[in-house]
Amino acid sequence: MPPSCCGYLSQYTHHHLVTFLLTFFSYVLLHASRKTFSNVKVSISAQWTPSIQNDSAATFSPGETWEDNRLFTDEKQATLFLGALDSIFLFSYAVGLYLSGVIGDRVNLRYVLCFGLCGSAAVEFLFGTLTEWLHIYNIYLYCGLWVLNGLLQSAVWPCVVAVMGNWFGKTGRGFVFGLWSACASVGNILGAFLASSVLKYGYEYAFLVTSVVQFAGGVVVFFGLLTSPKEVGLSLESETRLSPVETDTDSHRPLMSDEEDEVKAEVYSRRYQTVQQPDEPLAESPQAISFCQAFCLPGVLPYSLAYACLKLVNYSFFFWLPFYLSNNYGWKEAEADRLSVWYDVGGIIGGTVQGLISDFMGKRAPVLAFSLAMAMGALVGYSRSPNDQVINAVLLAVTGFFIGGPSNMISSAISADLGRQEALRGSQEALATVTGIVDGTGSIGAAGGQYLVSLIESKLGWMCVFYFFVVMTGGSIVFITPLLLKELRAMWRDRRALRHQL
User: Fold this and answer.
1) Is 90 exceeded by the pLDDT of residue 479?
2) Of the residues 73, 103, 278, 319, which has the fewest C-beta atoms closer than 10 A?
3) Per-residue pLDDT tens for 347-391?
4) Whether residues 337 and 435 fall in one domain
5) Which parts pass through the membrane (predicted)?
6) Res 170: pLDDT
7) What average pLDDT does this structure show over 192-221?
8) What per-residue confidence (pLDDT) applies to 377?
9) Final residue of a structural domain among 206, 228, 250
10) Please, what is the average pLDDT of the chain?
11) How far is it, in rounded angstroms, from Cα 21 to Cα 439?
């Protein structure tokens, strides 16, 4: 029986609390600024297309208008470009994740994290605020800035997950990381409210507010974050009463190992050696694992592919939900922004509850598979939502629970499990690299999906978009099926062994 979460949390100190809050709010601010772009798409589309067509256009070139500073001739072209920008961002974000994870295991995590936060804030200010103030409308400039923004933002997630993994061990990780991974959803909610509150002054002020707040948060994190207990002269054992051997050796046993006796023997052997050799010098700092070695670790590839399908769906809601609500139901942009937060509310609850359940079960894959199967039904139900804001909000929360919850688990708790699994034997540093691989692969899937969403919507309509989401969610289940079967067999053997003991 796993220890109770309350008993486990009581072992933490104020260092854990500060680390939890600083990493949590650093990603909250990053996602708030990222959410701004999706929340103001209607305003940007209107700004980039002419509001008054030139009646004498036949005398001139067909596309000429009274407003020659506009980028596109109609809203459909602007929508396609917005989808292309989402894909550009996510592709560069994915490439950056593969790189930043490797860098994070070799450079001080605090430096990499703050560089990503402050640099991204500066780029978003240039993209959304300065270009509008100076009336600079250029497709190539927008694309270049958004590529740079994706690269800079990619430095944040592997670093915050690695810092959390340094401070929090295996026991209770599903609950702790499930609660902590709500940072993205909280950031979405914060970004939606910040954007809607200043949108009446112009979309450039939404970018201004979120970028300034994010830059200030980066400065606070630089001076206040401790990336490891070692920085204050503490070890994982003294902080949580869990020895490093226990944490490293048993960190991913439910997912990666079926041979419990072998693992227990290994743990016992190491404890015995520690007792018999008290004067043995401390081991050197773990060496960073290579990218290829991390990619070949057990479980990394299937979870990465599953996350590629799931993140496509999750980020499609992230990027397109306010736009869908405004265009499909005719609701005002500010109303659509506020209503969209219910998807994130569901994701917050889902990630925490499902993480807690996985801790008590000692398994992750069965919880994921059940939630994803329910998500397929929730997507079909939401696609048929009536033009009623209350019903829509309820269906959104349910959909977020079953999609956002598994997404949060894979990107945080499971990534930490994979980066601390028994195969590493505590001798190599892989947490940031593995996190970058999982999230980077997920971002590649999400990047391709964003342009497909805009293309499918323009050709076939929103209903076909939701059918596309159902197929992708089913793909996630397919990729985790081998791990699911492995864990179910392990559970069956455990129960049979328990019956024999009784």
Assistant:
1) yes
2) 278
3) 889 888 888 888 888 788 899 999 999 999 999 999 998 888 899
4) yes
5) 12-30, 80-103, 109-127, 139-168, 174-193, 205-226, 305-325, 365-384, 390-410, 465-485
6) 66
7) 89
8) 93
9) 228
10) 79
11) 22
In a domain, 57, yes or no: no
**Which residue type, as a one-letter code, is found at position 340?**
S
Tell which residue, 335, 353, 357, has the closest CA to residue 345: 353
**362 burial level (CB within 10 Å; 0-12, 13-18, 19+):** middle
Shared domain check, 20 and 164: yes
Q: Are the CB atoms for 352 and 178 separated by under 8 Å?
A: yes
For 313, which DSSP code?
H
464 part of a folded domain? yes
- Same domain flag for 220 and 317: no
- Note the helical H segments in 40-64: 41-48
User: Residue 319: what pLDDT?
Assistant: 78
- 429 — phi, psi (to 5°)? -95, 120
In this predicted model, which residue has the larger pLDDT, 165 or 473? 473
Same domain, 223 and 316: no
Overall pTM > 0.90? no
Name the residue among 439, 429, 431 with its Cα closest to residue 409. Answer: 439
**CATH number of the domain within which 477 lies:** 1.20.1250.20
- The answer as to whether 258 is a domain residue is no
Cβ-contact 405, 69 below 8 angstroms: no
- Is the Cβ–Cβ distance between 356 and 175 less than 8 Å? yes
Higher pLDDT: 248 or 115? It is 115
Residue 190 has a CB neighbour count (10 Å cut-off) of 21
Say if 272 falls within a structural domain: no
The gap from C-alpha 199 to its chain's centroid, in whole angstroms, comes to 26
Gap between the Cα atoms of 177 and 175, Å rounded: 6
Q: Which residue range(s) make up the domain with 150?
A: 12-49+72-228
Is the pLDDT score of 249 beyond 50? Answer: no
Place 455 in a pLDDT band, splitting at 50, 70 and 90. Answer: confident
Q: What are phi and psi of 330, to 5 degrees?
A: 75, 20
Q: Which amino acid is at 407?
A: S
**Residue tagged 């592709």 (tokens):** 91
Q: What are 293's two structure tokens?
A: 């070695």
Residue of 13, 224, 15 whose CA lies nearest to 110: 224
Q: What's the domain count of the chain? A: 2
Q: Output the six-digit token pair for 88.
A: 């550009």
Tokens of 483: 């791990």
Distances (CA, A) of 158 to 94, 212, 220, 248, 371: 12, 23, 19, 19, 25
Which one, of 298, 310, 292, lies nearest residue 255 by Cα?
298
Last residue of a domain, one of 198, 228, 258: 228
Residues 158-181, mean pLDDT to the nearest whole number: 80
Type of residue at 496: R
